[in-house]
Records
---
Amino acid sequence: MVSSILRCVDCQTEYAFEKNLYTCPTCGGLLDVVHDLAAWKGRAEELRHLFNERMRSWKAVDRSGVWRYRELIAPGIDEKLIVTRGEGNTTLYDATDALSLYVGVNRLQLKHEGENPTGSFKDRGMSPGVTRARQMGATAVICASTGNTSASMASFASLAGLRALILFPEGKVAVGKVAQSIAYGAVSVQVRGDFDAALELVREASDKLPIYMLNSINPFRLEGQKTIIIEMMHQRNWQVPDWIVVPGGNLGNSAAFGKALLEMQEIGLIDRLPRVAVIQAEGAAPFAKAFEHEFDHFEPVRAETVATAIRIGNPASYKKAIRTVVKTHGWATSVSDQDIMDAKAQVDFAGIGCEPASAASVAGTKKLVEQGVIKPAEEVVCVLTGHVLKDPQVVIDYHGQNMPNVDAKFPNRMHTIYGTLDELVEFLPGNAAVRL
Ligand code: F0G
């Protein structure tokens, strides 16, 4: 039995869960999936025990880092419908001393969502998204994407036997991501325009054509993305950090994080809220700009940044993300491409690695520490959203000092030699004979 409903975040109109809606038919606002959590109030211990038990199970839906928490994601779901790749289960790293020193906090952790099956956090939302598409009887799915949503959708759609249609902004998608979409068999189309234009076209297409829309306007995607936070708290034995820092593009994650935290607090799984800081790239920072004016108005921008994943000027989940920042007494700011790339080099040197957009969270934390917003003694969890191999070209360009607007602070050059031992020894600092 499903007791959840859909509710508009603007006009509050409620709709039956079974209705096939992405946005509010009355006012066009975004929809929330609202679960009846009352039954779990005061029963946090029981839930924790259930989640722990599932960690010891080999059942696919128990092993998934999304469906393990299904009471908070899709209560009452018919498990036979679930499309899963065992998503989630990502590592929560303690930062190396060098990385903590670089950022300026004593207790830094990194939740690495690049460890999902297709290399980004998108799998967490795509699993329930594609499950819902199947529930609705869809045979084809569509999204606009800066590359990761599409890679994820292409994979999950193929797994579920659905056709996938992807609209990319022309020429601005990292090569690893384009390759994934093509490899997984999606119909891949470049749109002459940016992500915002491609998303507009997707909204129109899904209105007029019999094709199910899987951008993060779709509230079922965000239900899955909540598990980044739920799983992180589980890994921390339900101890709340002071800050959670996340990159912001279309603001789906920022939206989902607030919803997850408020619901967990309502049930009693956590006893207080952490502050959520949203970090955008300077050239794509309409949310950070609006934060400066306490969200009294919003202006879309024409986006440009080396972090192509977050090259978005008109974020779809803007209103839901405001809710997160306001309710958690959070923050929003932006960082330059230079800061993003230098922070990425530090995350990469730590042996952890991430794609450029992910490093915005680390660069943003460093900036907020320098500004005194985050205190060095506070506990911070940065979310890394994508895998280092998503965008290999930018790694080569940074370390080869070959980026037009970035002067690499930490280049690690490639060397070429003819192949003698003497030449090789020259690259080893100190006394090579002793060191070897
Ligand atoms: N980091 C990465 C690696 C992303 O791919 C994205 C978004 C974000 C951060 C921003 O997350 O939109 O929830 O604020 N990528 C989308 C895509 C837009 O099409 O793959 P957000």
---
Amino acid sequence: MRTQVGIIGGGPAGLLLSQLLHLAGVSTVVLERRSRDHVLGRIRAGVLEQGFQNLMRRAEVAGRMERDGQVHSGVNIAYQEDRLRIDLEGLTGGKTVMVYGQTEVTRDLYAARDALDGMVIDEAADVTPHDLESDSPYLTFEKDGAAERLDCDFVIGCDGSHGISRTAIPADRLQTFERVYPFGWLGVLSATPPVNDELIYARHDLGFALCSLRGPGLSRYYVQCRADENPQHWSDERFWTRLKTQLPAEVAARLVTGASIEKSVAPLRSFVAEPLRWGRLFLAGDAAHIVPPTGAKGLNLAASDIHYLSGALVDWYRQGDSAGLDSYSQRALARVWKAERFSWWMTALLHRFPENEGFGDRIQRAEFDYLMSSKAAQTALAENYVGLPY
Ligand code: RFL
Ligand code: PHB
């Protein structure tokens, strides 16, 4: 097989890139390790920045998002019983976020690739890149037990945090930066009306909690847990009791509980690999960087990487111009590090750090009190939450 751009990973980053390149006349093949049902069964992000929404429009996949997504003009932060609404729209000159699940984004992208006869090969095993330093790299993989080879001009690693593309870069050519947090998030999806029409991020003595949503009858809640927590040890009742305890009383009183549809634990981690290029290999999305979900930035960062990278590849194919490819790593990383900072800051503000009792707790409280009293601090939060410019 031969294509122009070989993409490893059929998550949002890989599918979005494939769709944008296709519309610009560049051929792609996406190799995805899992089955489509598995990919579409993952419950992940829910908050889309305007830059992400614009990319969906450019990719001609925004129809359902425009119809079913909810525009949110504010977000709430609670600290014990105190509550603060951050007026995203008012503080950013009119910017908002869209609540629309990553699962739906991925479904829309798959539908669009299918409609254009895009080549997405699922259950591709043992995907391995070769000759990345040459002008003619290729990928080998196994499909239905048969060995396959895909020749291409470029290989794009969109294979998430546990992918193989990053490991193809020699260790002495890659620098990594990491912070592992001593906790995780236990998430529950339930077919219950959301407790609030806007998100509530809550800090309580017992730890962090988040009330999010997917639609009028579908709620997504999280509570801070141990990083190695087993979700099976959490009955629905145990989860609801913990969540209620950690929310302001007035919110807890309104909480409608019900059977969970999905329950999972996500460890919290910050990670960046530099640079995002080695020869003809480019990394994008979670393959290159991870943020803790507190700032709602992971999926949005994958999208801004794809914005830079798709433009750079199109310039190369249309005009033979390699400037965009040469500056991709530096441009993307500049935005990545700002989102890393914001996600780290939100995480530090809102979680209980086991080693932090005493001084650290007081500093967190002071940070929240400052936020309550300062429009400048709220503006800084709002401008990061809606997404820094591309
Ligand atoms: P993905 O989605 O992980 O997709 C990578 C794909 O690559 C496949 N793959 C391979 N394919 C072939 N060969 C291999 N060797 C492969 N290895 C892996 C995988 O099967 C998969 O299909 O990465 P991508 O596309 O970069 O997208 C990134 C986002 O998924 C991620 O950043 C977000 O989900 C993070 N995130 C959030 N981001 C936001 O912007 N807003 C949010 O509100 C938000 N909330 C969250 C989140 C992540 C969470 N979890 C579970 C970590 C909430 C949670 C709980
Ligand atoms: C979600 O709805 O899953 C969600 C929302 C906001 C976050 C993280 C996750 O910061």
